[in-house]
Specification:
five-stranded antiparallel beta sheet; mainly beta; 2 helices; 40% strand
Length: 83
Amino acid sequence: MVLGGTVAMSFAGLKKGMLAKVTRINSSSHELDRLQEMGLTVGTTFKVVKVAPFGDPVEIDLRGYRLCLRKRETEEFEVEPVA
């Protein structure tokens, strides 16, 4: 999907070392609220530190700390690569 000239993607498309930004959160739930309280909000830029062999979990570095996320936790997030 293209949003304003950039490519929107899911967490599943991210690779180790990539910088990305959260562009949209498609749903609301208790679990997503918890992640937003931890700083994973629209506009937040983060770096992918590690991706496990089957893509689950993904470790990201954001706002000065590292966070590991399971696939099911990231399904409602849309992100875009940052140059």
